[in-house]
Amino acid sequence: MKLVVLGCGTSxxxxxxxxxxxxxxxxxxxxxxxxxxxxxxxxAGQRLLVDTSTDLRNQLLANGIERIDGVFWTHDxxxxxxxxxxxxxxxxxxxxxxxxxxxxxxxxxxxNRFDYVFAGQYxxxxxVELNSLENLRILSGFSVESVEMPxxxxxxxxxxxxxxxKSIGYATDFSEITDDMVDLFEDxxxxxxxxxxxxxxxxxAHLGMALELGERCGARKLxxxxxxxxxxxxxxSEETPDNVxxxxxxxxxxx
Length: 255
Description:
Layout: E1 2-7, E2 37-41, E3 47-50, H1 56-62, E4 70-72, H2 78-81, H3 88-91, E5 98-102, H4 104-113, H5 115-119, E6 128-132, E7 138-139, E8 142-151, E9 154-163, E10 166-171, H6 179-184, E11 190-194, H7 207-217, E12 221-225, H8 233-239, E13 244-246, E14 251-253
Parallel strand pairs: 3-4, 4-5, 5-6, 10-11, 11-12, 12-13
Antiparallel strand pairs: 1-2, 1-14, 2-3, 7-8, 8-9, 9-10
Pfam families: Lactamase_B_2 (PF12706)
Protein name: MBL fold metallo-hydrolase
Domain Metallo-beta-lactamase: 34-226
């Protein structure tokens, strides 16, 4: 099983428009961050995508991804879903639509905004067959579990994927650690977590909260993601324990 961090930046990316790098060293390639998305891959070559970030096309090209077996959404904020049209080339050559999953509320909001993706239009086929997560347990050889997390005033979905006797979790865009989250990620091999900045934030996890989640669930490896321009790769890497890794675009990790 393998994790690919397609993007690890905040909603504006790093650098921000205007070439604003903040505290990030522009000479360090790992500080150039696109919007967040991950891919998990099994030994058999099955691939699941989480979120269709605004930068999805470039992420798929950079990582040589030409096929997926399913797509999941955490929520409908623009940086997590507005690259949805880049799924069209992944539909080419398939016998049917790409299986897609999200919470009931996220499904509703995605259908309202991107109806053509889920219903076809003007003779174009449906790109994604969108379903609620309620009854999903297994997809393409992966077991899939999920819980809802507080993200300020809304909820977002956390995922746990298991295959080949290994586990990878994804918890982005949360503002509070719940017991359900700790239970979902208990003894997980790799956990990718929201970690916007060092100081507390009303809708995102900060460094202390990210580290707390990893400790409470006993994650063997913790990958920090959704990083803003204050989180310099080298500086942050020196601050964290050995089992905590600072994510970067294109990072590949096997549990």
